[in-house]
Amino acid sequence: MPRKPPTIFPQEQRLLSQFGERVKLARLRRKLSNAVIAKRAGISRSSLYKVEAGDAGATLGTYLRVLAVLGLEADINALAADDKVGRKLQDLALETTPPLPRRRFLTSKAKDEPVSTAQRDSGVSA
Questions:
Q1: What's the chain's average pLDDT?
Q2: Could you tell me which of 77, 62, 59, 72 has the C-alpha nearest to residue 30?
Q3: Of 82, 41, 45, which is closest to residue 64 (Cα–Cα)?
Q4: Does 1.10.260.40 match the CATH number of domain 10-78?
Q5: Which residues on neighbouring strands pair with residue 107, listed in sequence order?
Q6: Quick one: which of 86, 84, 68 has its CA closest to 76?
Q7: Whole-angstrom Cα distance, residue 104 to residue 117?
């Protein structure tokens, strides 16, 4: 039994519908029937109808197969290519406060134990 498609918000559904409409227009510009596209993509005609309707239940693979048949598969590379928010978050994470000065440890001549610079300067050994 097929799984129920995820809940899609209205704005997301509009985007999918617009994408499906663009796919349909690309098919019509090429004067190809839905049966020809479905056969070349290796999908059923009902799956093609879902793609052209922007149905959230159609898989990404189905969308990609249809785009490939139409010669538009390279357009998939444009999806999420410019991640402005992600890069901004990454840049913010890289901007840290300057590190505190590190304490340097020296070894005492009498003992091979570490001695901090503060202890060395004060003349106290560990």
A1: 84
A2: 72
A3: 41
A4: yes
A5: 114
A6: 68
A7: 6
Q: Which amino acid is located at 74 in the chain? A: A
Summarize pLDDT for 43-92 with one digit per residue, the tens.
999 999 999 999 998 999 999 999 999 999 999 888 888 888 988 888 88
> In which residue are the tokens 């249809």 written?
66
Residue 19 identity: F
Pairing of strands 114-116, 105-107: antiparallel
| Residue spans per domain, the chain | 10-78
One-letter-per-residue 3-state SS of the chain: CCCCCCCCCHHHHHHHHHHHHHHHHHHHHCCCCHHHHHHHHCCCHHHHHHHHHCCCCCCHHHHHHHHHHHCCHHHHHHCCCCCHHHHHHHHHHHCCCCCCCCCCEEECCCCCCEEEHHHHHHCCCC
CA distance 22 to 81: 20
| Burial of residue 65, with CB atoms counted within 10 A of its CB: 0-12 exposed, 13-18 middle, 19 or more buried | buried
